[in-house]
Write a structure and sequence with these properties.
The structure holds two protein chains of two kinds.
Chain A: H1 3-23, H2 27-52, H3 60-74, H4 104-107, H5 109-132, H6 135-156
Chain B: E1 7-10, H1 14-36, H2 41-64, H3 71-74, H4 78-89, H5 101-123, H6 140-173, H7 179-185, E2 187-190, H8 204-223
Antiparallel strand pairs in B: 1-2
Helix pairs in contact in B: 1-2, 2-5, 2-8, 5-6
Chain lengths: 159, 229
């Protein structure tokens, strides 16, 4: 075996192991993971949105810190924690004893993924705006993240 | 349909007309901003407060306003409503200076739906970045339920608005009554001899006082200047 094929084999094994790991993820673990990520997402986006809407005094350092942290948290890719079979609450699993995801998140999986990707792009733009230091651009990018969040919440979150 | 030329008759006072068209603009504005979301939610909430104040004013004006604005003037029992609906279908003449028996109930249902929409919004949250001003008083679970009803009730409002516009078009196209113009000018074109007493208009000072009262009530509700932070 050449070194190249060894690396290739290792990569292939890792990839299949990863997909097996996700496929075998217990529904309660998946629900717990996505809800935890979303909670931290909200924690970081909250002050950003409040400042963008003028409900909280403008504080550039806080805005930038939260926006960049939001990008890191979102990089955990919550979308992968919606495996098949995690569409129902798991009784007795505490936080995972409820899920607000609608059945459409699975039946319209492509639209669901698209909504996630839309938010990934909006968050990337927010982080770029935060690094640029332009206050107006930051506020407007924060509004666009709110809109991107809403796409998914409107269609795939029960209320 | 009419043998004699119609008579221009004062029907709607200025407060009713201002209320009506301001409400149209605010409802359109709140629907658009609510659908778009993002930073526009700030305006969605402001429009909602204004709608709440307008509806409160209209309720007060329905009790203490001009004769054609009063609920006692245009709310009829089921027999009268059915009779009017029958006359409409048979294309018989049936004119009213104020709201007709069907239109009167439409007013009440629309006001009730908008009142519920605006008040439920005060308690709503969107799980993203927006909370109604009264959200802290009720907690997340109840707020989620009210938010769900807020989203359901808007669909009812779409249906009611469509029905309202369809009825106005029906009066215009099938009966030759231009109710839109009357809601601008205040004067209805009625056939001579239409039964009923002429409208008695309440004073503008009273309207202004009730409008200020309604606005103040909403302002107190929203900003809670006397509660401890």
């Amino acid at each position: 075996m050449t070194r190249f094929t060894k690396i290739g084999l290792a990569l292939a094994l890792t990839a299949s192991a990863t997909s097996i790991a996700y496929a075998q993820m217990k529904p309660e673990d998946a629900i717990r993971a996505r809800q935890s990520i979303m909670r931290v997402v909200a924690l970081n986006f909250g002050p950003v949105a409040q400042m963008a809407q003028g409900k909280m005094p403008w504080n550039k350092e806080a805005f930038v810190a939260n926006a960049l942290r939001l990008e890191s948290v979102w990089a955990m890719n919550p979308h992968r924690f919606f495996p098949a079979g995690s569409d129902k609450a798991v009784a007795g699993a505490k936080i995972a004893s409820f899920t607000d995801a609608t059945p459409e998140a699975w039946s319209k999986g492509e639209d669901f993924k698209k909504a996630f990707d839309g938010n990934t792009q909006a968050i990337a733009k927010l982080a770029a705006a935060a690094k640029s230091g332009d206050e107006a651009a930051m506020k407007s990018a924060a509004g666009d993240v709110g809109k991107a969040c809403k796409v998914c919440h409107d269609d795939f979150r029960a209320k | 349909m009419t043998s004699a030329a119609p008579v221009s008759t004062p029907a709607w006072d200025l407060p009713v007309r201002l209320f009506h068209w301001a409400l149209v603009l605010l409802v359109v504005g709140s629907v658009v901003t609510g659908l778009l979301g993002g930073n526009l939610m700030v305006w969605h909430m402001r429009f909602g407060y204004a709608i709440l104040a307008l509806v409160l004013f209209r309720l007060l004006w329905g009790l203490a306003g001009s004769s054609t604005a009063r609920f006692s003037d245009f709310l009829y029992g089921p027999r009268r409503v059915a009779g009017f609906a029958g006359a409409l279908l048979k294309r018989r003449e049936a004119h009213y200076l104020g709201h007709n028996p069907l239109g009167g109930w439409m007013v009440v249902v629309l006001l009730a739906a908008l009142l519920f929409q605006a008040s439920s919004g005060l308690f709503a949250n969107d799980d993203i970045a927006v909370e109604g001003p009264l959200y802290p008083f009720i907690g997340k679970d109840l707020s989620d339920r009210l938010t769900g009803l807020h989203k359901l009730n808007i669909k009812l409002i779409y249906g009611l608005v469509a029905l309202h516009v369809a009825a106005v078009l029906f009066h215009w196209l099938a009966r030759g009554e231009n109710l839109v113009r009357a809601m601008f000018s205040g004067d209805k074109q009625l056939p001579p001899g239409t039964p009923g007493a002429p409208a008695r208009f309440a004073g503008g000072g009273r309207a202004l006082a009730l409008a200020i009262l309604s606005g103040l009530a909403v302002w107190l509700l929203v900003t809670q200047p006397f509660s401890n932070p």
